[in-house]
Amino acid sequence: MQKTSSAKFYDIHCHAMNLSHPNLIAFISRTKLHKYLFWNSVPLVNMLFSGVLSKKLNSVMNLLSVMENDMGTMFRIMEEDLKPICDKEGRLVVGEYVYDQIVLTPLMMDFGIKDFRLVPAIHYRKPPRKTIVEQVVDLFNGIKDYGVQRENRLFEIYPFLGLNTNNYPMSAGEEGTTLPDLLNKYFGGFEKSGTSERPQKIADAIGRFDGNIDNLGEYAFAGIKLYPPLGYDPWPEKNTAAFERVNFLYSFCSEKGIPITTHCSDGGFITHPQAEEYASPKRWQKALESYGELKINFAHLGKQEKIFRAKNWRDTVLGFMAEYPNIYADFSYCAFDAEFYRTLRKLLDSHNRADKIRERLLFGSDFMINLLSTDSYGRYVKVFRDADGLTGKEKNLLCSLNPERFVFGSNK
Question: Judging by beta carbons within 10 Å of its beta carbon (0-12, 13-18, 19+), is residue 44 exposed, middle or buried?
């Protein structure tokens, strides 16, 4: 088969965080670690379900073993994972396409929360200091440690800034950095039309990091990550401070062509009592009606773990993709086996706007969180590489052309 040299392979949805970054109570709730430990300690249950319990506990321990590392080591772990599935020149080959480099877009998460709503009985209720600042410093030091200037590196790394508008005032009279100042600092130079220089400007900004977050400026981030289960409401009540903030964000991102990835599944790091309502894609309907040019990736393709309504959110996302010009969706934490891609094949063959959807779907892994359901980063990528449900040309759309357009291309 003739091999075609393509641009770059994109993993549009991954994470780089260690155990100091997330709220650990939320993390324990997400992994259900406390439940597995409890049932594993009950002799009869352990005897009857030892295989299932051991597998779940092993998955959690596998995840923790990665999160114990610093960011630079984590990127090297990911690179080592991919070596067995690359060719002898260290390139990733998918069908007839060859990728010399892989682009990672680590999605930061603003874990700052007001209280511990999930555990109301505990005595120490003062929220921990989970500032995004510490996470930014760790990530950029990790990128530098990985070797942003190393010629033979496999990864190019373009972070997305985790943002919860509730944590930033609009005016300087309130405590903390204002939302306008934050957005202008990191994204003021972005242009709606997109520019071919943007990837290089981002790479240069990352390479200049000297350990001081105050010296980070424009192009330090490629986009913005929103996380509704942590309390971000995509469309608050009108005439409220929250409504003013999100409207400023959407107006700014529309004007500058800034890509946004928003969590869109009923799982995840849930800390807010209205998490499911906020995470639903339907919560975005009015926002899209008001800001139709927003460039948004609905992560996880609207995945719902509740079987009786498992297609509800997905169909809403697909409808957005068909109706609005800049709506995308990644299938991170979805594609663990070849059957997913066969199902995706059937979906594309049957949908009346398959042409639009095919050009907006994005490959994503959700590493490291996906280790709760797979053994390694390499295995998740290998399933995509080997899946028989899609052609090589279609895979190239999902992992190269579409994500590059989402991150760096102009708004349509």
Answer: exposed
